[in-house]
Predict the 3D structure of the following.
Amino acid sequence: MKIENKLILSNIINGAFIILIGFFAFQNMSLVLTKLRFVEIADDLNASFLTLRLSEKNYFLYHDRKALVEIREKITDTMDTIQAEKKDIIPAIGETDLKKLESLLKGYSDTIEEIQGKQQPDQELEVRIRSAGKKLKEYSDSLTQLERKRVSDIILNSKRILIFSFWAILFSALFIGHFISQKILRSLREIEKLAKSISNGNFNKIEGFRSNDELGAVITAINSMSEELGHREEELIQSKKLASLGILTAGVAHELTNPLNNISMIAQTYAELYEKLGEKDRIEFMNKVDAETERIRKIVKNLLDFSKPKDATPSEGDINAVIQKTLTLVQNMIDVSNIETSIHLTEGLPHVFVDEHQIQQVLVNLVTNAVQAMSTGGRLVISTRSGKSGNSIEIGVADTGKGVAPEFLPHIFDPFFSTKGEGGTGLGLSVSYGIIKNHHGEIRVESKVGVGTTFTIELPRYRKEETNNE
């Protein structure tokens, strides 16, 4: 479900709670008003019944027959009031209680009418009048008290409902809000993690995340982008490798010249001395040809190994061996440029967990840059040593070239940044930076104009658990 729909659903649920609370509050308020209206009427009736009892007492004390007339008139007024307020009384106490009240009032009226027909006091009728008046007053009082209690109960229940509803809405808002916010934050954390990974050159994906909302669509798009960037990086690495290959070819061509010349000379000598050579000498000539051919094969194989596109396959290895193998590729380029080379490889260094061909590419790029920076002449120093922490090894590539201006150093690893003018693509160091980052390493540069430049590569030492994490 989309986040928009979740928020709408959350608002609908909270809105439904509020409407329900409003409905109950309205119902209770209407009921309270109905009950209060009856209580007002009941107070008026009780006042009338009290007047009846006072007139009744006057009759019993003074035998004033005018009091009976007053009682009859008051009963008539009370019955008229009940009829007039019937629509408000019935919803409050119900038709049954109203009929009982009317019945008691009529019984009282009939008893008064009966005693009016007697000229002399009648003890039995007087007792009946007292009893009927008492029942009428008590029943009216009980109804009033009951309705007051009901009003109090309704108000109390309304208070409880409001408190419960408040906590229910608060809990609902917090729970749903927490659920939605956690889902959003989880997605954002995954996106942030992937963004940092991409910025470090690791084009991974967000795995195990399934969502049909907007963030799911964003993550799917970022995963696709990350995958595409990975493919582009591979293409970039290969294109840069081919560019380096063009530079290496000149040196390799020079290196191939020597064994080819030797083979040519051996063939000419062999042809001239063929008749004079014994079987043993002929075999020796062929062995020399075979040795020179093997030399050519190794040169071509090294060049092909470097140029072929390969998937990254890191393995445990000796960094000194990787450097020695790289030097066979670039040695002739160094020799042709008349550059003095110093190699200082520390023995017994910890092994590293690297892709040999990718590290070769980085070294070829750094050496090529160094050679180009020195034109003809100069000094190239390649060294290895243990890192300061003891958990890494360091590779140094230093030259005595023209150096890099301080304002350019912060941008030296940026894509397409070059100090070579039109001849440079600005991709070599950027690709090298990405390769080293993929190996969880660091690459640093120090340079002074007119003095030279030093690149330092730091790679973590090999640990067995690394093979499980890759």
Summary: The chain has a mean pLDDT of 76. The first helix runs from residue 3 to 62.
